[in-house]
């Protein structure tokens, strides 16, 4: 079975521009050498389809202590070509961000545990979805005016939900990510799949694997790394009986734009 990892983060005022440079490997971040491709979409008119014209005013004009951007970090299946990964990402993004302005990058560094590829998506987006009203950058990130929208900032789509609604939304996003991956795995002749459910919901009696990162792994003994590698191989060995009956097709699973 392929590995499922879905993480949500957010960034405060002043951090979006630098983080966009990080995920797209600009400037000092070029040294990583693991960028496969990147892109963006849904930018407002003042940005002219350029994230470089969107994130700096977001950092400058967004309200203090507000989330300037949110980010999904998603592990993608190994063994797919760049074109196959690009098709998967193109189908996945609309169901995650809708009409919100976004920027993404696909990294594929070498795994610190087994030396294999480690493809994963960074998808950062703003909660302020364009509404057809032309605004200057400063007005765009101002407080929304419900009585006169043209006089205020662009409305944020993140508010007004209780904890249950937020939980259900996260579950739906996880399900969408898994369904798109499984549809593309099947499309490319693969029999493995991912499962968005918790280990407890899957009936698996073990603790979830922690994301250790290269720095922490480099400080581990060879024996500890070997045990991690063997445990991962054991978990990722597909169970043919588990894949039967999934019935996943692109028509059933993939959310596409327009």
Automatic annotation (TrEMBL):
Cited InterPro entries: MobA_MobL
Stretches assigned to the MobA/MobL protein domain: 19-215
Pfam families linked to this entry: MobA_MobL
Keywords, sorted A to Z: Conjugation
Segments of this protein annotated with the region Disordered: 231-258
Keyword Transmembrane belongs to the record: no
Listed Gene3D superfamilies: 3.30.930.30
Coiled coil residues, start to end: none
Domain of life (superkingdom): Bacteria
The family this protein is said to belong to: Belongs to the MobA/MobL family.
Name of protein: Plasmid mobilization protein
Organism: Arenimonas caeni
């Amino acid at each position: 079975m392929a590995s499922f990892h879905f993480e949500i983060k957010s960034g405060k005022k002043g951090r979006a521009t630098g983080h966009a440079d990080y995920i797209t490997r600009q400037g000092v971040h070029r040294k990583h050498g693991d960028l496969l491709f990147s892109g963006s979409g849904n930018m407002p008119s003042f940005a002219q389809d350029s994230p470089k014209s969107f994130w700096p005013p977001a950092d400058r004009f967004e309200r203090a202590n507000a989330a300037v951007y949110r980010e999904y970090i998603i592990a993608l299946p190994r063994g797919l070509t760049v074109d196959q990964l690009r098709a998967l990402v193109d189908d996945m993004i609309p169901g995650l961000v809708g009409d919100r302005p976004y920027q993404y990058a696909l990294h594929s560094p070498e795994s610190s545990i087994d030396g294999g590829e480690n493809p994963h998506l960074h998808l950062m987006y703003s909660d302020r979805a364009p509404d057809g009203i032309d605004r200057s950058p400063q007005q765009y990130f101002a407080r929304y005016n419900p009585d006169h929208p043209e006089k205020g900032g662009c409305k944020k789509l993140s508010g007004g939900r209780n904890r249950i609604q937020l939980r259900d939304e996260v579950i739906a996003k996880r399900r969408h990510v898994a369904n798109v991956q499984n549809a593309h795995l099947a499309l490319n002749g693969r029999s493995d799949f991912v499962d968005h459910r918790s280990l407890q919901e899957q009936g698996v009696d073990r603790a979830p694997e922690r994301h250790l990162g290269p720095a922490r792994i480099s400080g581990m003994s060879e024996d500890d790394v070997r045990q991690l590698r063997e445990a991962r191989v054991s978990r990722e060995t597909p169970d043919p009986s588990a894949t039967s009956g999934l019935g996943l097709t692109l028509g059933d699973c993939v959310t596409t734009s327009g």
